[in-house]
Amino acid sequence: MSAQNIKIAWFGKHFGEEPPLVGNHQQGSGTIFFTGCHLHCVFCQNYQISQEGMGRLYRIEELARIMFELQKEGAANINLVTPTIWFQQIKKAIILARQQGFKIPIVWNSNGYEAIELLKQLEGLIDIYLPDFKYGDDQIALKYSGAKNYTQIAASAIQEMLRQVGYLKECHGLAVKGLIVRHLILPHNLENSFKALDILSSIDKKIHLSLMSQYYPLYKVREFPEINQLLPRQDFLRACNYALKLGFSSGWIQEKGCCKELIPDFTQEKPFISLTKL
After folding, report:
1. pTM (2 d.p.)
2. Domains in the chain, CATH or no CATH each
3. What is the structure's pLDDT at 257?
């Protein structure tokens, strides 16, 4: 595969993200789903894209053109989903687009399991970092995602992201710069969530936190009976209350589950409410 090519599964306006990433009903987040992922989560909601290779090849110049098209359509930002393995091509596309007058914020929507050296190459190009922090337990990370030394790598990555862009900043209700950290709560894995929240609180309790309930048993979860089920609401509420107890006060909770299909329902109502409104 040419170093000038990049594989994309889908792009368009997405209305199911956190409120400051979506804006009003005409804006939405200009989302680009990249093919492939360097994690191998057994519960991946978009496994056809991340693990099975769905998508087609585009040139770097075409990616820059897609970004311009979404900007022209009124998107609030460009939301790069699972971009890590394509970071060199994406970096070139962003530079090219900005040289040609591209203006709206760039969101790096990643799994968080990224080397600091990679992130430093993106400094000044990414406006908003939107990483997952999936695990507080390395054994669980290895079991469900095949990731070694997950907590240290992901925590260090989040610290580097925070150094680059700081706390979330908004203008007229839209995110323009900063960090939002997501955590997906898994069924019957509350201790993992508690440990993940402990680590995040040790980094900075003023981080904007997004607690997600959209877990749905897909892909290979039949091999893991403990997560081959829906997330109990009580587990979700306990994780949310633990975050509040730790002192997190900025961010959101995902009030409804979603994402049963390959691509989320982009017409759905905004699923997030304030972290403090339990």
Report:
1. 0.94
2. 5-274 (3.20.20.70)
3. 52
